[in-house]
Structures are given as structure tokens and as C-alpha cells.
């Protein structure tokens, strides 16, 4: 009788743990949408409202094109596509992205800002932390190539940084990539850092969530591998930005990707900034780094 009671209790505990893991895993892939409650108008920027399909054509994405009036008429422009982080919007309010976009536009570059699937004003019902989002970036690249013949640079924050690397590895039209606080490989990253996002103890929940979630939503986190993707971008340049004090995504993720090809890649490690917090702490230095990278892209393109 006692063994039967123990067995029943064990089964109940297992069911509760599995139920919690399923619920939290579902919440992580279905985060509550944040509103797009700011506008380029507030920064003195003229916007063109745009929509375009993801390259897989399963969702329609919403964004802005900020055309620079400072592009010389005899020069082929560069369009910078901004890619936001997990559960955010095109605004990437931690920066804020519109402030950085204003500096980029004033320096003579077009900027495209958009919401990933299941974010902001875009369609979609699931967030896959790069697995499907890379198709959204590729859709943005397709739109630029069709509507504004120009070269392309990607700049991404956190998940958007890793996703930008994945997309650039697939698309030769991308001249270079800037990432801020990106992770290298999704599966190992989640194994080490999932409690940051789940707010649950590592054991037993992390292995349970990682076992259940891919089967539940049909994604393979092992395929979200920016560390391997940088080899397909090389010798095109990447600028990695990361704070040594980032507690959400350790800076060693960027260092590991940079170290694959330090002859073509750049690494700027900041201090005392939180996750995607380097711009807020050093806006002038951050902007100078970004504009110097874009200028280098432009000069290299013009000389080749």
C-alpha cells in the first residue's frame, strides 16, 4: 500500500513538473507583444510605412523605411537593416534604436526597421529565437533589393544579432554585420542560461523544457548556430559589441565568434553595461564605432 502511494505521488510530481515545463516553454515562445508606441516623427525622421513577406512567405512583416536625404546622387547607397531582440519590437527601447537610426540616417545611410514575426505590428503567433526569424531578415533583404537597389548592412541586438549572422551567411548581398550582445549557439546557450528567461531552477526544469519544447513547436535549436555561420560570412566583416558585465548573454559568446576570424572581424568589449546596454552608457563612442564600420564598408566597396 505504501509503495502504491509513493508511486502515485511520484507520478503526480512528474506530471506537475512536466506541466510547468510545458507552460513556461509555451510562454517563452509566445511572449506578450509590446506596442510600437514611438515614431520616427519624434526624432525628426521621415518614414515610409512598409510591409513585406518573410522569405518563407508564411507571415507578413511590418516596418519603416527611413530614407536618408544625405546620400550623394552619384553614390550607390547602403541600407542598414535593424533587427531587434527577443520579445521586443523595432524600437529596441533599451537603446533606443530610433536614436541610433537618426545618427545613421544623418551620416548618409538608409535604415529599415521592422518587427519580427509575433512581435510589434507583424503577423505570426510564435517566437523561435532565430530559427524562423532568420527568414524574416531574408525577407527584409529581398524587399530592399526589389525597392531600393543598394548594398546592405545588418545590425542586430541580442537575438536579432544572432539572427543577422544566420541571414548574412545565406545572403551574399550583405556587405557586413554589426551585432550587439548576440549569442553564438542557441542550444548550448539555453542549457547554460535558460533560468535567466524562465525564472525557474536549472534542475529539473532546464532539461525538461529543452526536451519538450522542440517537439511541442517543431523547431530544432541546434540549427540556430551563429558560431558556425560566421565561417560562411568570412571574409566579409563583422563588428561584435558586447558588455563584459552582460548577465543575460555572456560576452564570451561574441568573443568566441570573433576569434574564428580576427583578421576580418572586430570586437568591442565594454564595461559595466547590462544586456544591450552599451549604447545607453556610451552613446557617442557606440555611434562612432557603428559609423566607422559603415564607412569602412563603403570605402571597401568603392575600392573593389
TrEMBL record:
InterPro entries: AB_hydrolase_1, AB_hydrolase_fold, DNA-binding_regulatory. Keywords: Hydrolase, Membrane, Transmembrane, Transmembrane helix. Residues 79-196 form the AB hydrolase-1 domain. Pfam families: Abhydrolase_1. The chain crosses the membrane at residues 6-26. Gene3D superfamilies: alpha/beta hydrolase (3.40.50.1820). GO terms for molecular function: hydrolase activity. It comes from the Bacteria. PANTHER family: ALPHA/BETA-HYDROLASE, ALPHA_BETA HYDROLASE FOLD-1 DOMAIN-CONTAINING PROTEIN. This is Alpha/beta fold hydrolase. It comes from Paenibacillus alginolyticus.
